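testing teh design pipeline on a random one, pls ignore if ur not involved
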């Protein structure tokens, strides 16, 4: 198996070293598409021997992720974010499973563990956070329409068991910054969704985003999926995940 690790970055000099260190011995090639970072991200990538393309930084970051995927020259692609770490167990499993089932699967779901404000979230629907990240070149792609979209794989997709470790936030301030950007993107999507709706449909959608969706999301994640067992971090996660709906809708109205 020849494998390319494909990453899109923007100001990730603090996260990128641990990410790239975790794929040493797994990656035959590293491709980094950088969105014009103002820190040392590019230098860090090059120090690991990565092929680097510097371009713009689009709001839909999956555009740059797809560019990295397109630049890969090996048969298999592992698409990572700079704040993710491939565990030793996952590294071994990738080698074993792809070699064992090379003619069966064109892609794999990876179970991801998300670190949030001092602990890994194990409830609230956050674990295992399956995401399609490993696929055969030419068989997997990103639609590039939504910030949390999954890759689309042509053919059969399997499931791996060992975790991909995700460390998305250094602190609560960084979480709020990313949360604000995310709600900005949802506001744009709401505008597009309502563009050809009549008045009644707009009212119904507004009520959905303002009341129905946030209440349903909080009750589902915090109680049904037992986010309450993740201590105060589980409450904060469920609350702000729910609040993204009304906040995004009010941002749409403001514009």
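output:
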């Amino acid at each position: 198996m020849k494998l390319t690790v494909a990453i899109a970055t923007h100001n990730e000099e603090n996260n990128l070293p641990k990410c790239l260190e975790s794929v040493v011995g797994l990656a035959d090639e590293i491709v980094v598409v950088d969105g014009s970072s103002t820190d040392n991200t590019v230098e860090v990538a090059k120090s690991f021997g990565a092929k680097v393309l510097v371009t713009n930084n689009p709001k839909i970051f999956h555009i740059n992720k797809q560019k990295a995927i397109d630049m890969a020259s090996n048969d298999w692609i592992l698409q990572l974010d700079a704040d993710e770490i491939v565990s030793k167990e996952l590294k071994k499993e990738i080698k074993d499973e792809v070699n064992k089932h090379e003619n069966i699967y064109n892609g794999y779901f990876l179970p991801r563990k998300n670190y949030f404000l001092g602990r890994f979230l194990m409830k609230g629907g956050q674990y295992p956070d399956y995401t399609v990240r490993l696929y055969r070149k030419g068989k997997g792609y990103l639609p590039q329409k939504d910030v949390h979209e999954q890759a689309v794989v042509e053919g059969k997709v399997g499931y791996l068991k060992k975790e991909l470790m995700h460390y998305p936030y250094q602190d609560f301030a960084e979480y709020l910054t990313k949360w604000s950007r995310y709600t900005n993107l949802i506001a744009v999507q709401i505008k597009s969704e309502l563009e050809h709706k009549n008045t009644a449909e707009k009212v119904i959608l507004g009520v959905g985003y303002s009341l129905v969706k946030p209440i349903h999301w909080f009750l589902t994640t915090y109680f049904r999926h037992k986010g309450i067992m993740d201590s105060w971090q589980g409450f904060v996660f469920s609350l702000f995940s729910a609040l993204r709906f009304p906040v995004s809708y009010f941002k749409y109205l403001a514009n």
